[in-house]
């Protein structure tokens, strides 16, 4: 599953400042059972808007991390609060429908 959220950087700050915080928190979060990686994307044409995607084996494992995670994670995330606005977009299942370009692994296959 994917947990996706949008991050808006406040004036006077940079995406790089947030990325530093995000990497430090992600390194700890990725030690949890079921963690499958995180990605941070910058919006084209708007360098102060980011989208973050955290991948998990299951919602239950992500929820378990939230309940019993390292307090250091909260401390790191709180350090970014003064210069960002975070808007959760939601939790999403892994894709049910996938179309790959011809000639790539799974090319022309649509999963249902």
Strand order of the largest sheet: 2-3-1-4
Give a count of the beta strands, DSSP E runs of length 2 or more: 4
Structural class label: alpha+beta
User: What is the CATH domain class?
Assistant: Alpha Beta
Amino-to-carboxy terminus distance = 16 Å
Overall average pLDDT = 92
Q: Remind me, CATH topology?
A: Alpha-Beta Plaits
Radius of gyration: 16 Å
Judging by the overall fold, what is the CATH architecture? 2-Layer Sandwich
Shape: globular
- Spell out the helices and strands N to C: EHEEHHE
Our count of domains comes out at 1
Portion of residues in beta strands equals 25-35%
Q: Helical residue percent?
A: 25-40%
Domain ABM: 4-61
GO molecular function: monooxygenase activity
Keywords: Monooxygenase, Oxidoreductase
Protein name: Antibiotic biosynthesis monooxygenase
What this model shows, in words?
This protein has 112 residues and is of the alpha+beta class. The protein has one domain: 2-Layer Sandwich (Alpha-Beta Plaits), CATH 3.30.70.100. Helix content is 31%, strand content 33%. The protein contains three helices and four strands, in the order βαββααβ. It has helices spanning 15-29, 59-68, 71-80, and strands at residues 2-9, 35-43, 46-56, 84-92. The chain has a four-stranded antiparallel β-sheet with strand order 2-3-1-4. A hairpin with a 2-residue loop joins strand 2 and strand 3. The radius of gyration is 16 Å and the shape is globular.
């Amino acid at each position: 599953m994917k947990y996706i959220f949008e991050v808006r950087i406040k004036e006077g700050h940079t995406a790089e400042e947030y990325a530093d915080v995000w990497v430090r928190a992600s390194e700890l979060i990725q030690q949890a059972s079921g963690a499958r990686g995180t990605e941070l994307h910058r919006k084209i044409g708007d360098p102060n808007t980011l989208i973050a995607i955290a991948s998990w084996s299951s919602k239950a494992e992500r929820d378990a991390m939230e309940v019993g995670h390292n307090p250091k994670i909260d401390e790191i995330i709180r350090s970014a609060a003064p210069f960002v606005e975070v808007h959760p977009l939601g939790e999403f299942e892994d894709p049910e429908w996938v179309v790959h370009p011809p000639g790539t692994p799974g090319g022309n296959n649509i999963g249902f």
